[in-house]
Design brief:
Blueprint: H1 22-35, E1 44-45, H2 47-54, H3 58-70, E2 75-76, E3 82-83, H4 89-110, H5 116-134, H6 138-153, H7 162-182, H8 191-201, H9 204-224
Helix pairs in contact: 1-3, 2-3, 4-7, 4-9, 5-6, 5-8, 6-7, 8-9
Length: about 240
């Protein structure tokens, strides 16, 4: 399945617990690395190479890549190579607009179910993000930012939007990482603080506005990175 050198991958390795089956551990590990952009766009992946890196058999890797392909996170080419898809300008714009539509809806739908314990948890995550920004820990910025949003939307016990939202994060993660690595300063305005204040006030309009501003700020930051559009497919 291709000739990519998987030994060069710098993956975040999560410890496998005894209660977690190997195929689920491999899937979660690869998914996390895609979400924070550790696997770059256009990177060819091989079942054999990933199995060697993860010290596992090929079967759970094959299953994980199949699941990730169904989520749009990886792409199986005609020659059976597996790659992280390259980004196009049109795809990037659509993914970002879909994020805004889905996440503002998810946030406002969660508001009636948000309790003080949810707000405390969100405050803790936001503090972790602030600390990660100070040390420019791009992995933790990305993953804790996603944790903030997932925790907020998940306050709604009837929500069905989080898997759809996470599919967008998966597709944007590898490309967004290129920009994040080049940014000198992320999050000039703490939109999470605005979202938290809206939650305390039970202000649905303010919450939607904060979540949309948070996403649009991220898009604007990516677009300001010099040369970032050279990474769109057909340009680089």
């Amino acid at each position: 399945m291709g000739t990519g050198d998987d030994s060069e991958l710098r993956l975040l390795i999560e410890t496998k617990t005894d209660s977690l089956k190997t195929h689920e551990w491999v899937y979660r590990l690869l998914r996390t690395n895609l979400m924070c952009g550790r696997i770059e766009p256009g990177k060819p992946l091989t079942i054999r190479g990933l199995a060697e890196v993860l010290d596992t058999s090929p079967m759970p890797v094959r299953e994980a890549l199949h699941r990730l392909a169904c989520e749009g996170a990886v792409e199986v080419k005609n020659n059976r190579r597996v790659i992280v898809p390259l980004m196009t300008a049109e795809k990037f714009a659509e993914l970002c607009e879909l994020r805004i539509l889905l996440e503002t809806y998810a946030a406002e739908s969660a508001l009636p179910y948000v309790r003080d314990e949810h707000i405390r948890r969100l405050e803790q995550i936001d503090a972790r993000i602030d600390a990660a920004v100070e040390r420019h820990d791009v992995d933790r910025i990305s993953l804790d930012n996603q944790a903030f949003h997932r925790t907020l939307y998940g306050a709604n016990p009837f929500q069905i939007s989080v898997p759809l939202i996470e599919s967008l994060w998966l597709q944007l993660g590898p490309f967004s990482r290129i920009a994040m690595d080049r940014l000198e300063k992320a999050y000039l305005v703490d939109r999470h603080a605005e979202a938290l204040e809206a939650l305390r006030q039970r202000n649905g309009f303010g919450l939607r506005r904060a979540i949309e501003a948070d996403i649009r700020d991220g898009i604007a930051s990516i677009n300001t990175v010099e040369g970032i559009h050279d990474y769109f497919e057909g340009v680089a």
